[in-house]
Structures are given as structure tokens and as C-alpha cells.
Design goal:
mainly alpha
Length: 344
């Protein structure tokens, strides 16, 4: 009999019938007297939790307790208390971290959008290679470190499986910022955007990589980088003008970190694109082009009061265009934007 078959056969037997658990008296869940709507747990889960409460009550640290947490998590991966207990067990038992990561990977293949397993994975990785130790080597050396290489490969597979998995992207941001892997991240993001220009998660990650862990409120983009990002975005707008992601990315990036370049650099580029016969129809029909113009004119009016009246009039015309033709479904929003324009 294979080891896997033996383990499955053992799990099929009630804990109450296993010699290993004869010294434990399970603690039943207290539903309270006259509970109106008790949760309909399966008999197996009810038993597992009874034994888990018992070992947790006495603070047991053992291999059997570790195995029990695995069974409970497989039944209910969102039980964060069990994850906390498992983390303690792994640490105090000095378990094989690589083996534990294999187990977490198996769980994540079944429950990829479970919060707890990603946080558990963070704790395991930092035990394998402390971030403080990683700072003493170059980024090239960090990227090739077996621990981080494994994690990047794991994340690559997870994101390939679901390119918009919020949990995988969040974990990737933790890994990149904790181990300062900024240079290679822009390469990865560029690959993801080129695979799917509509992947808003990848565009969000590009913003994260551009800031490189700096305080957003204190970042002012250098002119060369801002111009480079504008050209990058324009080339990707050409691929799909009616795609919100690059429009939101570039207007958000410039509004926060290089506001004057909205009208000095972005405005002439997108107007040039809208005048190009190859893109004119697609550009003028997408609400994102008009919305970007509105954001740009509002910023320009705020920076240059002498041209404010004319820019506000143009902005009002854009709101009318959006409300009546280009984005009728959101007409109330655009009418609100129109009334909120400052004409003083």
C-alpha cells in the first residue's frame, strides 16, 4: 500500500477509534441553550474541531496536532484561528519549512483566494531567508536565491492560472517590497501587460513598481520617467483605445506625481492620436478619451487661473458630450461633474 493510500485510510477512521487519540477528550462547541439556528456541520468536521479545541486548550505542541490542523484547514481553509495555531506548531516543532511550503502550495491550488494561506506563506518565507540578511546582497543575487526563485516561480504559475487573483498580486507586492526586487518587477509587469493589455491588475502592479516603496505623497516623477510612461501608455492605447486600464493608469500617475505634464505632454500626445485617421474613430468614441481630457483641463485650470474660464467651458462641453452621446449610461455622473466645475 502506498503511503498516500495509508494516510487516506487513516483519515477515514474516526479519531475516537484511533489509538493515538485515546488520551484526548474532545470539547464540543457550545452553541448556547436553545440555539435557534445551529450550524449544520458534518459529523467529520464536528469531530475534528472537538479534538482541535481539546489540544488547543492545553497548548499541545505535537506532530499529531500539526496533522490535525491540516485536516481542519482542508475542511475549512478560512478558519484563521487554526492557521495561527499551525504557525505556532511549525515554529516550535521546527518543522521542515520547504515541506510546509509544498503543503501550502497544494492548499492554494484548491483554495487560491483564501487570505490565511498567503499570510502563512509570508511567515514561512521570512523564516527561510530573513529580509535583513537579504539586504546585504545585490538584487541580481536576491533574484537567484533559491527561496525567492521558488516564490517567483510559484507566483508566476498562480498568476498564469488567474491573472487577476488579488491575493496572488498582493503577495507578490509583499515579496517584491520585502526583498527589494524592483528592477525585475518592471520586466515582469511589461510581460503581463503585453500578454493582456486589459489586465488592470498588471497596470496596478506597474504603478506599484514605479513607486518602488516610496511614500506616494512625496514622489515627484522625473521628467524623463514621466515622458517614458506617457509613450508606453500611448502605444498600449493604440492596441485597445476603449480599454480603461492605461487611461486610468496614466492620468492617476501624472495627477499624483507630475500634474503639469498632464497638459504639457500627455494632452498633445492623445490629441495627436485622436487626429490620426487610423485611430480617430476609436478614440473619439471611447469615453476614456473624453474623461482624460476632462481631468487634464481641470488640472490645467487649477494651475493657470488666467485660462480658467475657457478651460471650464471646454470641460462643460465634454461633460455634455459624455452624458448625451459617448457614455449615456453614466449621464447622471457627468451632469454632476458639470455642475461641480468651478467657474469662479
Amino acid at each position: 500500500m502506498r503511503i498516500e493510500d495509508s494516510e487516506q485510510a487513516e483519515e477515514a477512521v474516526s479519531l475516537a477509534q484511533q489509538a493515538e487519540w485515546q488520551d484526548i477528550t474532545p470539547i464540543e462547541q457550545d452553541e448556547g441553550e436553545g440555539s435557534m439556528c445551529p450550524i449544520a456541520y458534518t459529523d467529520e468536521y464536528r469531530e475534528l474541531m472537538g479534538y482541535l479545541r481539546a489540544v488547543m486548550a492545553v497548548g499541545e505542541v505535537s506532530e499529531r496536532a500539526l496533522a490535525l490542523t491540516a485536516r481542519v484547514i482542508e475542511e475549512n481553509p478560512g478558519h484563521y484561528t487554526v492557521w495561527v495555531y499551525r504557525k505556532r506548531l511549525v515554529e516550535e516543532l521546527e518543522s521542515d519549512i520547504a515541506k510546509e511550503l509544498d503543503w501550502v502550495s497544494e492548499i492554494s491550488s484548491k483554495f487560491p483566494k483564501n487570505y490565511q494561506l498567503w499570510h502563512h506563506r509570508e511567515s514561512l518565507v521570512t523564516r527561510l531567508w530573513a529580509p535583513s540578511n537579504a539586504q546585504s546582497v545585490s538584487e541580481d543575487q536576491r533574484v537567484t536565491n533559491p527561496v525567492l526563485r521558488r516564490e517567483l516561480q510559484f507566483l508566476g504559475a498562480a498568476i498564469d492560472e488567474d491573472s487577476k487573483n488579488f491575493h496572488a498580486w498582493s503577495y507578490r507586492q509583499w515579496l517584491i517590497s520585502t526583498y527589494a526586487l524592483w528592477t525585475q518587477e518592471l520586466v515582469f509587469v511589461d510581460t503581463m501587460i503585453n500578454q493582456d493589455v486589459r489586465n488592470n491588475s498588471a497596470w496596478n502592479q506597474r504603478y506599484f513598481a514605479i513607486l518602488a516603496n516610496r511614500d506616494p505623497s512625496a514622489v515627484h516623477l522625473e521628467a524623463d520617467m514621466a515622458k517614458s510612461e506617457i509613450e508606453y501608455v500611448v502605444e498600449h492605447i493604440k492596441l485597445a483605445p476603449n480599454n480603461d486600464s492605461p487611461w486610468s493608469y496614466v492620468t492617476g500617475l501624472l495627477l499624483r506625481h507630475a500634474p503639469s505634464m498632464l497638459y504639457t505632454d500627455l494632452l498633445p500626445r492623445i490629441k495627436q492620436l485622436a487626429a490620426d485617421n487610423a485611430y480617430q474613430a476609436a478614440m473619439t468614441l471611447t469615453p476614456f478619451y473624453w474623461s482624460a481630457l476632462l481631468d487634464i483641463y481641470e488640472q490645467q485650470a487649477a494651475d493657470h487661473p488666467d485660462t480658467k474660464k475657457q478651460l471650464v467651458e471646454e470641460s462643460r462641453a465634454i461633460c455634455d458630450q459624455l452624458a448625451s452621446e459617448t457614455d449615456i449610461i453614466h449621464c447622471r455622473y457627468w451632469n454632476f461633474r458639470k455642475t461641480s466645475l468651478d467657474t469662479c
